[in-house]
Amino acid sequence: MLRAVEEFRVTHVALTPPVVVMMAKSDVTDGYDLSSLQDVVCGGATVSKDVIIAFTAKFPTVAFVQCYGLTESMGVFRTWGAEESVHWGATGKLSGGFEAKIVNPDTGNALPPGKQGQLWLRGPSIMKGYIGDPDASTATLVADGWLRTGDLCYIDEEGFLFVVDRLKELVKYKGYQVAPAELEHLLQSHLGNS
Fold first, then answer.
1. How many domains does the chain have?
2. Which of 12, 41, 140, 155 has the most neighbouring CB atoms within 10 Å?
């Protein structure tokens, strides 16, 4: 990928968090001319504050954009501009034409800003269902057009989305619910610090 950016003067790339971590905190980019890069869009998981700081320090002319989307919905939340990109831990604000709400997964009731629950989405690019799998479609789609994402999230008072983890992946330990993403962020914070 780095060779392609250099050779073809690539301006925009979409990356996963592990690639961003490697680019920011290792010497993997040494010897490559990446001066053509203008935007790096990152999705799949949130990127920690220390990684964003390291990335933007190493690539000060590159806009770092975080986004949230699913195969079933495309990009629905994203950061716009340098100011939103440093809203630490957020994957951005809701894109135009979409609706989102945080729902208590047990009751189906909508929750206020700052409360964690399942993210539900509605909008023009939401899938119609899974081909050949009506049971999965019924489990994911609500009759009035809402898509249950399966992601545990919250939206703050300013409208920024924070992804905590997947509902199915929560680890229950001594009565506490621990999100594996929290453990992953802790481990990522130690990369490159040795």
1. 1
2. 155
